[in-house]
Amino acid sequence: MKKYIKTVLTGIMAASVLFACSKDFLDYEPEGVLSNENVATAENAEALVVAAYAGIANDDMVGPLTSMWVYGSVRSDDAYKGGGGRGDVDVVDRYEQYNLTIADDPLDWMAPRTWTNYYAAISRANFALDVINQIPDADYADKTTRQAELRFLRAHSHFVLKLLFKKIPYITEGLTQEEILEIDNRLDNDDLWNTIADDFLFAYNNLPPSQDQVGRADRNAAAAYLAKLRLYQAYEQNDTHQVTNINLSRLQEVIDFADEVTGGLEPDYGNNYLDGFDNGPESIWAAQFSINDGTTVGRVSFVTGLNSPHGTGLYGCCGFHLASQNMVNAFKTDLVTGLPLLDTFNNTNIFNVVDGNGETPLAVGITLDPRIDHTVGIPGRPFKYRNTVKEAGDMIYNFSWARDPGVYGYFGNMKEQQAPDCSCYVKEGPFVGTSKNIEFIRYADVLLFKAEALIQLNQVDDGITIINEIRTRAAASTQRQINAGASNVYNVGMYPMGMLKADAIKALMFERRLEFGMEGPRFFDLVRWGMAEPVLNAYLAIEKTRKDFLTNAQFTAGRDEYYPIPQREIDFTGGLYDQNPGY
User: Fold this and answer.
1) Who is most buried in 82, 315, 316, 395, counting CB within 10 A?
2) DSSP code of 572?
3) At 84, which helix (H) or strand (E)?
4) Can you tell me the distance from the alpha carbon of 505 to that of 518, in angstroms, rounded to the nearest whole number?
5) Which residues are CB-neighbours of 131 under 8 A, at least 6 positions away?
6) What dihedral do alpha carbons 575, 580, 582, 583 form, nearest 10°?
């Protein structure tokens, strides 16, 4: 694989090259590179804004921006790496084992590439802002709106980088090369949150409530992102990443911004993961993709291209991102109440025996949350709500679809897959891409942000009411073919009013895991709550008795919450950047 050697600063200093992207306003075919001599026009500014939108989705399988399946799912208790054994894309194995202990590890080429890709996206936004700032207001009617969109995109990129690396340089427009070289990553944690928030606030105050062109950031998206940011900021961390305080005023801001967000839940949970429902009522902010747009393969996403079921004849390869046994067990519900088994769900396994037909019968006396069959591929059960695909063969998930069941088991990922006869689907060699959007924030997220803030502020019943709204939608999401007709196994109950705050917080945390299982937020939630070390080491203590490959895995508090600042960046700046502790 070609070594990616660009640094953040060289990316920031470079001119922006326009790449084609499409879907509504992204339907633009650039013809060259814009120079300083001809760039400061409204027409060229519009093109640069399009390029900035493209930048936040210009990722790949080994430099992900849009999908956090590696950083947030495999690094948590939701999923195993999968693939053809531990040596297959071994950098992800090192992440999964929490075995990345030195900052200049030559085997760590994925997180540094994500760093570079996101700062390339930031450079696009800043270049566009530099151009737009030069254009007289009278010559550019949409000037303020486009500035707000670009600052939103810049804030989004910095936000994700902060989740991954914590201590990052914040790069804005209007800087000379010399000034860029003087920017360090030493902002106080709270100050860095506020700096990111300033961009989102500018967007919130200057964007329209909605946009005519699908995919553009609007006030709604800015409000949702501010709710998310203030929630993370509320859990104040010390220098070794431990939560030392929960800021109540920040939690009130979460509620205030969440109340500004308009939207709704899809009536069926599965709509969120199917082509044809992009930009629906639940979609607040998403990466946009396209197909059949005049380019060779379309602007499809290959970021999860390694994760298709393996050996099916329907997909490509490579069998990565498999649900953990712990994740599967989390979908159990109490036979009487229909509520999750918050403390005992992992005491016994479900679907842990494959019969002679290659199926996994459900144990007697177990009921399930139906979201399991929208999230996990289980032998003997329909995959993507299909028994068959026209001219493609059987779509019942099969034990043989697991590439290395002796190491990683056989539970597949379903949310990020589409049926092979989908018009959104393209195959390049062994790798699968689709034009399905990838959501950054959906309305269910905003509801649970608010519920969490309410509960922490002792408004417990109000928070539980919101959680039950999410559970009501889950209970109703059984109309598609998800488990070959055995609908009586589903049992989803509602939490009662009058719960103790501690119990309500536990319910909220569990609900987030069920709702967003294998979508990527799990690891970041655990870090935000200050629970990563106890939860993940408790997970590993049991999981390593089930899976030998985890025998030596151990999470180290004060180090493993974040990735190391890439050593090449520290070297390039002459030591201007501080390294995260423990590396």
Assistant:
1) 82
2) H
3) none
4) 21
5) 39, 40, 44, 45, 48
6) -50
